[in-house]
Specification:
Layout: H1 9-19, H2 21-29, H3 35-42, H4 50-60, H5 63-77, E1 95-96, E2 99-100, H6 102-115, H7 119-125, H8 134-141, H9 147-159
């Protein structure tokens, strides 16, 4: 796969000079305070919206920060955020902070061994590409799983609950 080109100040300055000389002259004359403003003005870049900033901040927030924000939303505006409902309180969650629980890891590995599967076969059964490494990384290196994979994995475990 080709490496993504670096999109820094020098890149946008060169593009402005080459493709949009009028905007570059305006930048030099002080009409635009920054290269980014000039690049946005001519359409080379799009400005980040507040919604994009909020989504980015939410994804980077820790579980405690998210919980505090949800509490603030509830106290300030009466808004409650929906949380996934567990089917039974006796079954522990398969993941904590999107990392597989020890019992879930051992159960998945036991099913894989009993059915003579590979991790890619499990991904395929869950509706993902066989070459998707996320389950293997979660099992081997304790990597986090995407929410869609966790939901599919929970359904897969439920479908294979009869395997001892």
């Amino acid at each position: 796969m080709a490496k993504q080109p670096k999109r820094d100040k020098a890149y946008y300055e060169e593009r402005l000079l080459k493709d949009y000389p009028a905007h570059y002259v305006d930048y030099i004359d002080g009409k635009y305070r920054t290269i980014t403003e000039a690049a946005i003005a001519c359409g080379l870049k799009t400005s980040r919206t507040r919604l994009l900033e909020l989504k980015n901040a939410w994804q980077k927030a820790s579980a405690n920060e998210r919980r505090e924000f949800e509490n603030w939303l509830h106290a300030q505006y009466g808004i409650t955020t929906p949380h996934p409902v567990t089917t039974s309180s006796t079954i522990p969650p398969i993941a904590i902070d999107r990392r597989l629980s020890p019992w879930a890891k051992s159960r998945i590995l036991a099913i894989i061994a009993k059915r003579h599967l590979r991790k890619g076969d499990v991904m395929h059964e869950m509706g993902f590409k066989k070459l998707n490494p996320s389950l293997g990384r979660a099992l081997d290196r304790d990597d986090r799983l995407q929410p869609a994979v966790l939901i599919a994995l929970e359904a897969w475990l439920n479908a294979n609950k009869h395997i001892c």
